[in-house]
Amino acid sequence: MDKADLLDEIRLEVGDLIDKHRKDLPLMFQKVCSHIQRRVEDYQGVAVYLTEYPEFIRRHESGSIGLPRVQKFGEGPLSITAVRGGLYRERNLNRILICIPLYLGQNVYGIFVVESNPLSQIHDEDITLFTEICSSFENRMVAYYQPDIEEPDFFDDDDLV
């Protein structure tokens, strides 16, 4: 199976996991991290760091992540990601690091991190998968923390009149 097909499969499986565990954010984060890391052998580690002032704390992980478990605001790639407000990519002799911020409203809630072998390739398809997962996480977080906001029903047949 080529990588594009594998990532499409993972996209569907992660969507099912997010939907299945939508009422339990910690379990959802852990299941998704474990699933992604298990399915793509190039991904050495997948993690979610949460913001707990004044630091980022790794709360959910699968595999090996070279970043410290706790990183103070203003230090390292997690803070760079938060300040930039978008994708951060770092490649060195030891790893490829991808960090994407997770937002709740306009506040950074956490950082989604993928670490890969420096000899492997992280392609645009990988980045697209990561950003889609982050978007799904953000939608779930809004529903979890603001349950009064009604989620859109994209399959409402009444709108097809």
From TrEMBL:
InterPro entries: GAF-like_dom_sf. It comes from the Bacteria. SUPFAM superfamilies: GAF domain-like (SSF55781). This is Methionine-R-sulfoxide reductase with GAF domain.
